[in-house]
Amino acid sequence: MTVQIEPYRRDVVLQTVMDDEAVRRHELVEQLGFNPELQLVDEHGDEAASFYPELAGFELSIWTLFHQSVYSKNKEEWSGYHFDRIPTEVLSHIGFAQEFGGFDDIELWTPERKVELDPMAVGVVGHRLGHSELRHNLGQNFAFNRNARFFPIVRWGESLEAFDRIKERALLNTIQLTHGFRNKVVPLGVLNYIEEQLHSGIRSPFWIDKASRLAGKHCGERRVWVSPREGVAANVCGVCGAH
Questions:
Q1: pLDDT at position 56, please?
Q2: Cβ–Cβ under 8 Å, residues 24 and 112
Q3: How far is residue 143's CA from residue 147's CA, in Å, rounded to a whole number?
Q4: pLDDT by residue (tens digit) across 202-215?
């Protein structure tokens, strides 16, 4: 099957001009000895945004849930990427992004375990910390980290599934079934509820099981017990997602 390619570079480059405050901030960050990668993320990201769209919020959550593995150029992990033969056109797009100079790192994202890989090359502005690094470096304040912005460069693969299908698969990736739901289809209402939680910023896995009989029914069906690793558990209607 022919590999499909989806580049994200804009046909028309957006013009960005630093205002006086941005220029002064650049000067002060360098003068006072702060790390530009951490303190100038927004400004450098605006430069990248002139060439590429940005992944943020719910959309970023979905793509990172779908692409479980990351290969960083800065960490010299690209030599270990062996899951497909990257097309020449894709290499060209990555090469432009590297020469463009607006990214602090370029990463290859892939689901790895799936037959239909649909990998993506992503430009990073700032310094991305992994979950364990966040806890180690920022302690209990790790949730407030905002040191990186992400810009898709190019996606390729045999399927290039639509975002709605990617979203469905990503939501299923967050779910861990207990014995009450082994070998059963996850109700649509539960998927809608988990999507709502992701929109609110929760990104931890969710355990689902049959709710206790005391939880009652909704829409004529017994409710489902949904519990995130971090957050509050809820009894959710499997039909409409009410909780």
A1: 86
A2: no
A3: 11
A4: 777 888 888 777 67
Regarding whether 90 and 144 lie in a shared domain, the answer is yes
Q: How confident is the model at residue 182 (pLDDT cuts 50, 70, 90)?
A: low
The residues near 150 (Cβ < 8 Å, ≥ 6 apart) are 54, 55, 56, 60, 122, 123, 124, 125
Is 44 a domain residue?
yes
Q: Determine the Cα–Cα distance for residues 24 and 11; give it in Å rounded to an integer.
A: 31
Give residues with Cβ within 8 angstroms of 122, minimum separation 6: 55, 106, 107, 108, 109, 150, 151, 152, 153
Measure the CA–CA gap between 52 and 150, rounded to whole angstroms. 10
Residues 152 and 191 placed together within one structural domain of the fold: no
What's the length of the chain? Answer: 243
Mean pLDDT score, 101-126: 85
238: left (phi over 0), alpha (psi -120 to 50) or beta: alpha
Asked if the structure places residue 84 within a domain, the reply is yes
Which residue carries 């905002």 as its tokens? Answer: 146
Alpha helices in the chain (DSSP H): 20-32, 36-39, 41-49, 57-66, 88-100, 131-138, 163-173, 188-199
Question: Which burial class, exposed, middle or buried, applies to 185 when counting CB atoms under 10 A from its CB (0-12, 13-18, 19+)?
Answer: exposed
**CB 238 within 8 Å of CB 188:** yes
Number of structural domains (the chain) is 2
Domain around 199: 174-236
What's the pLDDT score for residue 141?
Answer: 46
Asked if residue 124 lies in contact with residue 48, where contact means CB atoms within 8 angstroms, the answer is no
- What global pTM score does this model have? 0.77
